[in-house]
Amino acid sequence: MSHQVDARRLLDDRGYSGQTIHNTNPANLLEKAVRDRITESYYWKEQCFAINEATLCDRAVDMSFIGGTYGMQKPTPFLCLTLKLLQLLPDREIVLEYLHQSHFKYLSALAAFYVRLTFDSVDVFRTLEPLLSDYRKLKRRTKDGGYVLTYMDQFVDDLLTKDRVCGTSLRKLPQRAVLEDLDQLEVRISPLAAELDEMDESSNQNDA
Length: 208
Fold this sequence. Notes:
53% of the residues lie in helices and 9% in strands. The protein is mainly α.
């Protein structure tokens, strides 16, 4: 019963007095129509009942795809667990543990999505950019209910460059170059660019 009361408090702006994210009720980071579909879904009622940060991992480990809504606007487990994280508001260290563990890729993807929703802009770049070198395969469920193949680095790139991912409108990030000009981020050299520079240097040495 306390779980249901806590969920109602999270979703009811009129009486919400808990921790805020970006100066708003954390639930508002997902659109109301999406929240309503989540809380009405079978997965939310059966699999998200009375779970905590530890048992949420078990649900995430069982996931086999990412995505937003599909078919008749049915929310994916990925989206349901995102709302559950917004209800739990785990400590930063726990989120980073979710993100950096190497055994369960869909738990990492869930954590990356949560980071994009909740961290400030500079921390989003600093935290997610290392995953641009993560090439694990992911399945993404499409709106028509089918599946497409993607990769962790592509998913993270979408999080850093797009305003809508997994059927969710994201807070707009400033351009990375702007944060570099403000000395809030160092200039990023991509692994590919570094590799090309090494090839050029090697080629010049051979020519000499």
